[in-house]
Amino acid sequence: MASIKLVQRTQQEDATGQSPIYIRLIKDRKAKFVTTGVKAKVSEWDEAKQKLKKNYPNNARMNAFLAQKVADAQAQVADHERTKKSVSARKLKEAIKGKADPNFFDYCDKRLEVLKGIVSYRTTVIYEGYIKKFERFLGYRDFYFSDINVGILNDYANYCKKKLSKW
Q1: At a CB cut-off of 8 Å and minimum separation 6, what does 156 contact?
Q2: pLDDT bracket for residue 88 (50, 70, 90)
Q3: 74/119 same-domain check
Q4: Which residue from 44, 46, 48, 167 could staple onto 40, CB 3.0 to 4.6 Å apart?
Q5: Do 85 and 118 lie in a common domain?
């Protein structure tokens, strides 16, 4: 399970004396930081309680905002760790930031459009055939890059050997 904590990065202090507050995510001893967009002076931040002190303007609202950010991050981490067998700190950071996982077939379609002007017509037809075979194997187009793993690739290789008699 990944650990999540709010930290103030005092080494990034700006000219006004304020330092940004980050969500620190640790997974497999690798730390990743996600910005909260909040800055505070060192005297306004309570490191032990992970809260803004009373001398920070609008401290109650900002503490509620930070608590919500941490809760959202914990929910994202729990969802990813439940659905995926192994997930890295980088993937968890991308999930917290809201970076979408690209659809494999949408990417292939866009890449083929780019290649049509670069490679020969016959090459693009061959590539389209490869993509259609993989889509027939899966049976659906709702397939993301994060879904690609060794098991899927081995199953596809067996499918090609047995059903398509190629390889």
Answers
A1: 134, 137
A2: low
A3: no
A4: 44
A5: no
Structure-token pair, residue 2: 């990944």
**Tokens 């490191």 sit at which residue?**
47
Split into its structural domains, the chain has a count of 2
Evaluate whether residue 29 is within a structural domain.
Answer: yes
Distance CA 26, CA 3 (A): 5
Report which of 83, 79, 80, 67 is spatially closest to residue 23, judged by C-alpha positions. Answer: 67
SS3 state of residue 119: coil
Please state the length of the chain. 167
Q: pLDDT class for 167, splitting at 50, 70, 90?
A: very low
According to the 3-state scheme, what is the secondary structure of 5-22? EEEECHHHCCCCCEEEEE
Burial of 82 (0-12, 13-18, 19+ CB in 10 A): exposed
Cα–Cα distance measured from residue 62 to residue 66, given in angstroms and rounded to the nearest whole number: 6
Same domain, yes or no: 119 and 68: no
Please write the tens of the pLDDT for every residue from 72-82. Answer: 888 877 877 77
| Statement: the pTM of the whole predicted model exceeds 0.70 | no
